[in-house]
Design brief:
By secondary structure, the chain is α+β, with helices and mostly antiparallel strands. Helices cover 25% and strands 26% of the residues. The protein has a nine-stranded mixed sheet, covered by helices on one side. The chain has a three-stranded antiparallel sheet with strand order 1-12-13, with no helix packed on it.
């Protein structure tokens, strides 16, 4: 028997993947000119729940500006539903034929995706599209492909065969059948763009949540000296169930995990995080990884690659990076935090903190 589980199943359960404290009514005694309650808007975009809450007074109109920008960026990234007219779809259609000229925004995103592919030696690979399109995990037609199909798709996954032309701003995929899939990095890119939109409109206290890519702007609305308290998703439960929290300010928290989307066949679960080396979803001791960075695109690119490395290699790797921290949750419900997260507070008794000051 086959079962699929995706973002749609959680819509009525909770709007936030990560619960953020300080979201309700409050009385501000600081000098930021904050509203008594935030201006909020929630829409279903890019296959997930998108929510923005702005706390600055008289900034309600900025919500429309922000959501217009999200829709603009999402429109040329998607390859699903009405995505046949998207720029990504055009690049994929012209694979092995000719380069495709694209917009400044998309070229910037693809160039960043190539850089992450190079820096992770292909553990993050923007040409993973043939595999994700084959498995379709998270969609109603998800299935377990046979080995021949997987081998054929694997032969088309190779970020080295993405040709960028900075002068003409074109992208060319060398082999017919190659497909870009920016799903593992696009939400981070869009989140950072929305941060800029809010800043340009004099917003300095806000929450941006793109279905697991969360950015908290400024300090907590309850106190201009206090950081937000961000809850970290329990990877074994539905959205809104947390295992702990950490303080954050002007930071992105991106979570990848097996709870998001998976395919279940005969009792075995296949997560949506695809291994570009084997053609199968990653299968290691990890249930979830949350990455804390200054920019969301970094958290997006790193969350997948850290998940692929597994616990020990991933923890060692993140501890060597500047301005990057991570929380690793194993399938045995053990929690490991990187060196910079001394203030992480484990609040769920079902989990055990294996390192950190609270051990």
């Amino acid at each position: 028997m086959k079962k699929t589980k995706g973002y749609h199943a959680f819509l009525l359960l909770c709007f936030l993947l990560l619960f953020v404290s300080g979201c309700g009514p409050f009385t501000s005694s600081d000098n930021r000119n904050l509203a008594a309650t935030p201006y909020e808007e929630t829409e279903f975009l890019m296959g997930t729940v998108v929510r923005i809450a702005i706390y600055n007074k008289d900034s309600e109109a900025v919500l429309d500006v922000a959501f217009d920008r999200i829709k603009e960026l999402a429109g040329f990234i998607t390859t699903e539903e009405d995505g046949e007219n998207s720029l990504i779809s055009k690049i994929n259609e012209q694979a092995g034929k000719e380069p495709v000229a694209i917009s400044d925004d998309l070229y910037k995103l693809i160039k960043s995706a190539v850089t992450y592919s190079e820096e992770t030696n292909g553990r993050f690979d923007l040409t993973i599209g043939p595999l994700t399109n084959l498995w379709r995990i998270g969609y109603p037609d998800a299935r377990l492909p046979d080995q021949v199909e997987i081998d054929q798709a694997l032969a088309l996954v190779d970020y080295h065969k993405v040709v960028l032309n900075d002068q003409d701003q074109t992208v060319f995929l060398k082999d017919p059948g190659m497909r870009l899939d920016l799903g593992a990095i696009a939400k981070g890119f869009i989140t950072d763009e929305i941060v800029q939109v809010l800043k340009e409109n004099d917003v300095n206290t806000a929450i941006i949540d793109l279905g697991g890519n969360l950015f908290v702007m400024g300090k907590s609305p309850r106190d201009e000296q206090a950081e937000w308290q961000v809850g970290i998703q329990d990877p074994f439960e539905d959205r809104g169930t947390i295992l702990g929290s950490l303080p954050a300010s002007n930071e992105s928290i991106v979570t990848s995990g097996v709870y998001e989307r998976f395919l279940e066949i005969d009792g075995k679960q296949y997560a949506h995080l695809m291994n570009p080396e084997t053609g199968y979803p990653f299968d290691n001791e990890l249930a979830g990884v949350s990455v804390v960075t200054k920019e969301s695109i970094d958290g997006d690119g790193l969350s997948t690659s850290l998940f692929s490395k597994g616990l020990n290699e991933g923890l060692d790797f993140v501890n060597q990076l500047d301005d990057v921290d991570a929380i690793f949750v194993t399938k045995d419900k053990d929690v490991y935090v990187s060196n910079g997260l001394k203030d992480f507070d484990l609040t769920n008794d079902a989990f055990t903190l294996m390192n950190g000051d609270d051990q």
